[in-house]
Write a structure and sequence with these properties.
By secondary structure, this protein is mainly beta. The chain folds into two domains: about 5-55, no CATH class; about 65-165, Jelly Rolls, CATH 2.60.120. The chain has one helix and 16 strands. The strands form five sheets. A six-stranded antiparallel β-sheet has the order 6-7-8-15-10-13, with no helix packed on it. Strands 2-4-5 form a three-stranded mixed β-sheet, with no helix packed on it. A three-stranded antiparallel β-sheet has the order 12-11-14, with no helix packed on it. The longest helix has 7 residues, at about 50-55. The radius of gyration is 20 Å and the shape is elongated.
Length: about 170
């Protein structure tokens, strides 16, 4: 990401994973890290002691890159969670269901297939797929696929997921 440093900065390392500029002025012997999980500004000598502080923070994972693609949490509401998911071509989500939440997928770009309760459907940009709590569903990326996923329910949790074998 973008980092701007003035001439007074010395021995400064900046890691910016956000889509916003980071401006540093007059910093010496510092580390600045900006990511969806949080922002760190530390003296380089102190930065090696970060683990105990990070371990004490209880927060939902807001971004991850995986072998299948990536996801970024965009919004957390009282009864909703909005996530942008990018699936690499040839990859898929697990065939799964949720007992306590509905999901709505909006295809942003790419092409693929959804399977909802055993019924397969081709999807491309602009398509919207709605899954009620309890139904089994997955999405398969034929090309790189960007999906906006909105989860709706009172108890949105990673523990509300049951995986199933997908018969192909």
């Amino acid at each position: 990401g973008q980092a701007i440093m003035n001439e007074q900065c010395q021995n400064l390392h900046v890691l910016n994973e956000l889509d916003v500029p980071v401006l540093c002025m007059g910093l010496k012997d510092m580390v600045v890290s900006a990511s969806p999980e949080g922002i760190l500004v530390a003296n380089k000598e102190q930065s090696s002691y970060i683990k105990s502080f990070v371990d004490a923070i209880k927060q939902q994972v807001m971004f991850a890159e995986k072998s299948w693609g990536s996801f970024r949490v965009l919004d957390v509401g009282e009864n909703s969670l909005t996530i942008k998911v990018t699936l690499k071509a040839g990859n898929k989500m697990n065939y799964h269901s949720h007992e306590r939440r509905d999901e709505v997928w909006t295809i942003i770009s790419g092409s693929g297939r959804t399977i909802v309760d055993g019924m397969e459907q081709q999807v491309t940009a602009g398509d919207v797929i709605t899954m009620q709590a309890g139904c089994r569903h997955t999405i398969i990326a034929d090309s790189e696929l960007e999906v906006m996923e909105v989860q709706l329910g009172r108890e949105i949790s990673v523990h509300d997921k049951q995986k199933f074998e997908l018969e192909e």
